[in-house]
Amino acid sequence: MRVHISLVDTPRIPSQGQVSPPPEPPRIAAPTRRAGRLLRLVISWQRCGSGSELRVQITGDLDAATAPVLSEALIRARRDLRTVQGAVGIMLDLCAVPFLGAGGMHVIANAHNDCAADGLRLRVVAQHLAVTRPLTLTGLDRLLDLRPTPSR
Q: What is the pLDDT of residues 104-121, one digit of tens each?
């Protein structure tokens, strides 16, 4: 679903003999603490039972502001996996993520679909209720290989 929001400034028409005050500048909400946090990614290779997988470990809130960073990292990771013999997939480690928003869930669902199309697996490791609960409420927990620990 695509949502488009536009602000329209309607001109004020002064009555006869009155002067219209200048229009107020648009109000911008002050950024929240959550929006100011940065997403940190650590990418490494690890051996797993049937080959190698790329581990993408995230630290920070995963929301609409930071989801594009993860999306780009997962696209590059899939590209790299195609060139490595014995690579089986990606382990997305969300253990250090204290907040998961809709933007982050969208990126994770797309990554799952893209990995499946490439014949790779996407394992998601998450421990915090703030991350696992949204995945459960949306039904993504049934789609993803969701685990509480990074065990193989």
A: 999 999 999 999 998 999
- Token pair in block for residue 1: 């679903």
pTM of the model: 0.71
CA distance 125 to 67: 17
As a whole number of angstroms, the longest Cα–Cα distance in the chain is: 83
User: Of 1, 13, 10, 63, whose CA–CA distance to 38 is shortest?
Assistant: 63
Sequence-distant (6+) residues with CB within 8 A of 142 are none
User: Which strand (E) or helix (H) includes residue 25?
Assistant: none
Torsion of CA 79, 100, 151, 78, to 10 degrees: 0
Q: 37-48 pLDDT, tens per residue? A: 567 878 777 777
Please work out, in degrees rounded to the nearest 5, the angle formed at the alpha carbon of residue 34 by the alpha carbons of 29 and 39: 125
Rounded distance between C-alpha atoms, residue 101 and residue 135, angstroms: 10
CA dihedral for 86, 52, 73, 113, sign (positive or negative):
positive
